[in-house]
Design brief:
2 copies of one chain form a homodimer. Chain A folds into 2 domains: 59-256 and 441-532, Zn peptidases (Aminopeptidase, 3-Layer(aba) Sandwich), CATH 3.40.630.10; 259-320 and 370-436, Alpha-Beta Plaits. Chain A is built from 15 helices and 20 strands. Chain A has helices at residues 31-35, 64-72, 74-86, 97-111, 183-200, 222-227, 230-233, 292-301, 325-340, 342-349, 360-369, 409-422, 446-457, 475-480, 516-532, and strands at residues 115-119, 126-131, 138-144, 163-167, 171-175, 206-212, 238-242, 253-255, 257-269, 281-282, 372-381, 390-391, 394-403, 428-436, 439-440, 463-465, 468-471, 485-488, 493-494, 502-507. In chain A, strands 1-2-6-3-7-18 form a 6-stranded mixed β-sheet. In chain A, strands 9, 11, 13, 14, 15 and 17 form a 6-stranded mixed β-sheet that branches. In chain A, a hairpin with a 3-residue loop joins strand 4 (163-167) and strand 5. In chain A, helix 2 packs across helix 5 and helix 13 crosses helix 15 (516-532). Chains A and B meet through helix 1, strand 9, strand 10, helix 8 and helix 11 of A and helix 1, strand 9, strand 10, helix 8 and helix 11 of B.
C-alpha cells in the first residue's frame, strides 16, 4: 500500500524506516559527484515567515457530561474495538471483507444513522452512512474497513483474537491486526459519537461515513464508490480520517498534503524486435539471441542521470509549480525540527549521506517540493542463490514517480512513452499499476484550524507539514470533491503492516500518549470545534 | 548447473530449449537496428574444407562372446542401474551423497578395481578407482554421482523408486532422477566392464575412475579432488564421460570443446557512496536518498551497446583467437545441417529473429567462435504481484560471459573491474560465483578417432561440432591434465533437471535409439578401439 508513511507520525512521517538487513563491505567512492548530476529545478522561497501551530487558538469548549459518559463506558467502548478487530477483513485475500462491511453498516444503524448502505463496486463494497443532525456543518468521515494480510511468523498473539496485552513501556494495548490501521481509531471515533448522542441526543455536525474495503489494495474502486454519492459529498465542509497520530513520545504531526504516485511496470519481453517470446532459454544462446533483460537495463539507464537522481524524461519537471506562500511558511516552520533530527534520521535510515551530497536543509525542500523517481523492484530470470544460466524472456522494473502539484499520471504516461519511443525503446511496455495526482489542503480551512485548535487544547501542538513525500489517494476529496481533508486524532499505535500491530488503550503513568478515553474526547471536541469554526 | 546443454544431443545440443511461458503482445520495432550495434570482431575462414565423420574408419572389432554375455545378463544389468538411481544423492541438499559415494566405491571394488578411495574435499567427496589391466593405454572415466533436486510437482513416479515405465513412443524406459544424468550411462559403462571381465578376465585398457559428487553444484571442488591424483591422471591417454548421446531420432553429435564461463553477481548496495546500507526504506525517500537499483541499471548499461549484444568492456574481445584450421573444418562440416535446421530452431526457441538480424550462417560462427555476455537474472526490492513502494538497499544482476579460447576468468575479472572503476562505478561489487576457461580437444586425438570409429560401426555417424556454446569445467582435463576428452555413448534419455527424467532401456521396434544392451556393447567396443588406436 502506497501510503505507509501516512500512518507514521512525527517528522518521521516523512520517513519509511525499514528493518535492518545484511551489512555491506563499503567502498569509499562518490559516484554522484563524478557523474555530475543534473540538478532538479529549484524554486527560491519568497517568504521567511514561519507557520506556528501554537498560535492557532486552542479550542475552549467543555463537554464534561460527555467526557464523563466516555469514562463511565470505557469497558463497553473497548469491547467495540475488540469486536471490530475480531472480524477478519483481509482485502487481498477476500477474507471476511463482506462480513466486515455489514458489521460497519450495522454499527452505523445502531448509532442512529438515518441512511446506511453497502455500496457495490467492481471490487469490495463501500459502506455509506448519513446522520442528519439538522446542523449547519457536515463532516465526511473517510474510513477503511479492510486490513493487511497476516505475516506468517512473528505474532505473539492470535492476530484476530482482540487480545489486550500489558506492555511494560506502553501500558495496556490492544494487539491485533487492524488495531491502529485503522479499526481502532475509527471505532473510537464512533464511540465518541455514541457518547455525544447518549448525553446530548444530537450531534453538533451532520456526518457522512464513506468507508471502503480496498485501502490496502490501493483503493482501486474508491472513486467509483465516491461517485455514487458525489453530489451529496460535495455539500460537506471537509473530510476527516480518524488516526492515532501520536508518536510514542506523544508528538503529533499533520500533513497538509501528499504527493501523488504513478507506479508502473516497465516490461521488456521477446518479440519481433528479438529475444525469446514465451519462455527462458539456455544462457549460452545469448550468442545468437537478443536479450530482454539487457534492453530493460538500457531503457532504465536512459531515464535518469548516471547517479539515478535526476529524471531525464523531457518535460518531467515542467509542470512542477513553485511552492505557494502557505507551503513556504509551513516549510519554514518545520525546518528547525527537520535540521535538529537530521543526524538521527541518517542513523535510523542507515545512510551515510543524502542524495547527491545535499545538505539537510536542501533535503527538506527536495522531499516536499520536488518529484522523485524510484525503482521499487527489479526482476528477471533466475533470482535465487548461486548460478543458473538462462536467458530470460522477460524483465520487469517496478518504478514509481512521486508527483507534486501540478503533475499528473496522464502526463507521466505520455512523457515516459514519448521518451522511450524517441530513444528506440518501443519494445519496452509500460503497464500502470497505480496512479493518482497529489492532494493538498489549506492550513486555513476551518476544519484544519478546528483540528489544530483541538490538539492545542490537549497540549499537543502539532507539527504541520506542508506535505508528505508519501502518497495517498486523497485527491478524490481535495480535487474531485473540493473538500479540505485532515487526518487527525490523539492516540498511538504502531506495527501497521507488521506482526503485533497495536493501539494503546491505557497508557502507563507518565506517558504523553492519550489512552482510548482521551482519544474519544478529542473526537468529541473536534466535532464541536468544527461546528463552531469559521 | 552451467553445462545443461552438454547433456542434450544433436545440433540441438547448442540450444537450451525452455518450456513455453506467457506470450507477449508484440510491437514491430527493431531496436538493435536503430541502436547501430558495434559488431564483434570476425575472423574470416582460411579453409573451405569440411570435416566428415563418416570418413573416419569404422571400428572393425568383433567381441561376440562379450556381446552374448551382455545379452544374457540384461536383467542383472538393469537392476544395477535401478540400484544406482534408488540411492538418493542430491548434492544441493546433502541428501544421500556420501551413501552414493560409498555405493560407487563398493561397485568398483566388486568389479576388481585394485585401488579405490573416497576422496575427501572441502565439499562432497570424490571417488577414485584404479584398474590396472597391464595394458598400454589408460582411460580416465569422468563420472558424476550426484543429481539435481526433485521438482515439487510433475513427477509421474517416485523419483527414487527406479520404476520401469512403458512409453508408447519410446518403449521401456527407466524413469528416475539420475536415469540419464548421469547414473544410467555411467552404470551401463560399468556393466560393459563387468561383461568384458567375465568373458576375457582382463580389460583392453587400464581404467582410472575419477568421480565427483558436486557436478550439479558447478564442480567447485573437483580441481582439488583431481589434484590428489594429478601425476597419475596425467599419464593417461584420454578422458571419457559416458553419456546417452542419441536424440530420439537416433542422431549423435560430439562437441570437441566447450566455452568457458565467468558467472558473477554485480551488486549495488548502499554505502559511503549513498543509499541505505542495511535494509529497504520507504519508496518516498527516493527524494532524499541515493538508490542502489538505479546505480545497477547504469552500471549494466555501461557494459554493452544499447541492443545488449556487444560488450563494451575495453579489451573484452582482444584475446579471442581466430578459429584453428581444424575448428574451421568442423564448422564447415556442420554448416549444412545448421542451416537446414534454422527455421525449426527459431520455432523451438520461440524467437522471431537472430541477434542483430544476423543470418543463420552468421549465427553458427557467432555461437561457436565468439564470446557472449548474458544477464541470467535481475533482482532488487519488491518482485511480487502489484505495488509495494520501497527503495531497495541492494540490487543484484547475475551475469555470465561464455568465453572462447584464449579468454580466461582472471582476464574478465580484471577488465570488468577496470571498466566499472573507469566509469565511476567503484560502488558496484563483482562477486564471482563460477569461473573456468574453455576447453578444447582435437578431433585427431586417438581417443576421439576411436569414439567416432565406434559410432560409425553402429551406423550412427556423429555430427562433430567444433565447440558447444554451453560450458563445462573440462579444462581440468584438457588444460590441466593435457588429455583429450570425449563425451560419448549410444542411448537416449531426457528430462535432465526436470520431472520424469528417463533413459531408454528397451526401445520400441523400429527405433533408431540404442537400448541398454547396445549401449553397453558400444562401450565394450570403445575400450577395444582405444586400445588399438594410434
Amino acid at each position: 500500500m502506497t501510503k505507509t508513511s501516512v500512518s507514521r507520525r512525527g517528522l518521521g512521517a516523512l520517513l519509511g524506516l525499514g528493518a535492518a538487513a545484511a551489512a555491506l563491505p563499503a567502498g569509499a567512492h562518490d559516484p554522484a559527484a563524478e557523474a555530475g548530476p543534473v540538478k532538479a529545478p529549484k524554486h527560491p522561497f519568497t517568504t521567511t515567515e514561519a507557520f506556528d501551530a501554537s498560535k492557532v487558538p486552542a479550542y475552549k469548549g467543555k463537554h464534561d457530561k460527555i467526557y464523563a459518559h466516555i469514562d463511565a463506558h470505557q469497558a463497553e467502548h473497548v469491547e467495540n474495538l475488540r469486536r471490530w478487530v475480531r472480524q477478519r477483513s483481509i482485502s487481498a485475500q477476500n477474507d471476511g471483507v463482506l462480513e466486515m462491511a455489514k458489521l460497519v453498516e450495522s454499527d452505523l444503524k445502531a448509532l442512529g444513522f438515518q441512511e446506511t448502505a453497502i455500496v457495490p463496486s467492481k471490487g469490495h463494497p463501500g459502506v455509506w452512512g448519513w446522520f442528519d443532525a439538522g446542523a449547519k456543518k457536515t463532516l465526511v468521515v473517510y474510513m477503511m474497513y479492510d486490513v493487511q494480510p497476516i505475516e506468517p511468523t512473528g505474532w505473539k498473539v492470535d492476530a484476530f483474537a482482540g487480545d489486550l496485552v500489558d506492555d511494560p513501556k506502553l501500558g495496556q494495548v490492544l494487539m491485533a491486526r487492524g488495531a491502529t490501521n485503522q479499526k481502532g481509531p475509527e471505532r473510537a471515533f464512533l464511540n465518541a459519537v455514541a457518547s455525544i448522542l447518549a448525553v446530548k441526543k444530537k450531534l453538533p455536525v451532520n456526518l457522512m461515513i464513506m468507508a471502503e474495503g480496498e485501502e490496502e489494495l490501493g483503493s482501486p474502486n474508491y472513486p467509483e464508490i465516491i461517485g455514487q454519492y458525489e453530489d451529496r459529498l460535495k455539500t460537506a465542509d471537509g473530510v476527516m480520517f480518524p488516526m492515532n497520530s501520536q508518536t510514542p513520545a506523544g508528538a503529533v504531526s499533520m500533513p497538509m498534503g501528499v504527493k501523488g504516485i504513478w507506479y508502473v511496470e516497465l516490461i521488456a519481453q521477446g518479440g519481433p524486435h528479438g529475444g525469446p517470446k514465451e519462455a527462458e532459454v539456455h544462457g549460452s544462446l545469448k550468442s545468437i539471441l537478443d536479450s530482454p533483460a539487457w534492453r530493460l537495463a538500457h531503457a532504465l539507464a536512459s531515464l535518469t542521470t548516471v547517479d539515478g537522481n535526476t529524471c531525464l524524461v523531457p518535460g518531467f519537471y515542467d509542470s512542477v509549480r513553485a511552492p505557494s506562500a502557505e507551503e513556504q511558511r509551513l516549510a519554514n516552520g518545520v525546518l528547525p525540527q527537520w535540521l535538529a533530527e537530521a543526524d538521527a534520521r541518517k542513523d535510523a535510515l542507515k545512510v551515510d549521506r543524502w542524495i547527491g551530497g545535499m545538505t539537510a536543509e536542501e533535503t527538506l525542500y527536495e522531499n516536499l517540493f520536488n518529484p522523485s523517481f524510484n525503482i521499487d523492484g527489479l526482476v528477471s530470470g533466475y533470482t535465487g542463490v548461486g548460478t543458473k544460466t538462462i536467458l530470460p524472456h522477460r524483465a520487469v522494473a517496478k518504478v514509481d514517480v512521486r508527483m507534486v502539484p501540478n503533475q499528473t499520471p496522464q502526463e507521466m504516461m505520455a512523457k515516459f512513452r514519448a521518451h522511450l519511443d524517441a530513444n528506440g525503446f518501443t519494445d519496452i511496455q509500460i503497464s500502470q499499476l497505480s496512479g493518482y495526482p497529489p492532494a493538498q489542503t489549506s492550513v486555513d480551512a476551518p476544519l484544519v484550524r478546528a483540528a489544530i485548535g483541538t490538539f492545542n487544547k490537549y497540549g499537543v501542538t502539532p507539527t504541520v507539514l506542508p506535505r508528505l513525500a508519501g502518497s495517498a489517494p486523497y485527491y478524490v476529496f481535495t480535487d474531485r470533491l473540493k473538500l479540505p481533508l485532515v487526518t487527525a486524532g490523539l492516540g498511538h499505535g504502531a506495527a501497521q503492516h507488521a506482526p503485533n500491530e497495536y493501539m494503546v488503550i491505557k497508557p502507563r503513568a507518565g506517558s504523553k500518549v492519550a489512552g482510548l478515553a482521551e482519544v474519544e474526547k478529542f473526537y468529541v471536541d473536534l466535532l464541536y470545534a468544527l461546528a463552531e469554526a469559521k
